[in-house]
Specification:
With 100 residues, the protein is mainly β. 4% of the residues lie in helices and 44% in strands.
Length: 100
């Protein structure tokens, strides 16, 4: 799901980073979304920083929404106000370990 909205808060802290975003729907109603990422040390390699999102920034994020329909989700991609795109704010896939 792709969301375009206004940043209200960016919490860059353990155990999970949280992006608070106000999104105006097609009906004109504003919905307050919370998008989650992993801890700073996990998402730092793909470009997320303490100052990636600033209050009032217009951003576009792609989230995997929760199944119960609430305005919550996991950040899959983010386009910052300056046009820079960041990848998933998640742990990298685990490589299975096989033994000979």
């Amino acid at each position: 799901m792709t969301l375009k909205g206004t940043v209200k808060e960016w919490i860059y802290s353990n155990p999970h980073c949280l992006l608070s975003l106000d999104v105006t729907g097609e009906d004109g109603q504003v919905v307050h979304w919370i998008a989650e990422g992993q801890a700073p040390n996990v998402i730092f390699p793909v470009g997320y920083r303490r100052d990636s999102f600033k209050f009032g920034d217009q951003v576009t994020i792609t989230v995997e929404p929760v199944k119960n329909g609430r305005p919550l989700g996991r950040i899959l991609e983010a386009m910052l106000a300056d046009g820079k795109t960041l990848g998933p704010a998640a742990s990298p896939p685990q490589i299975p370990v096989t033994t000979p």
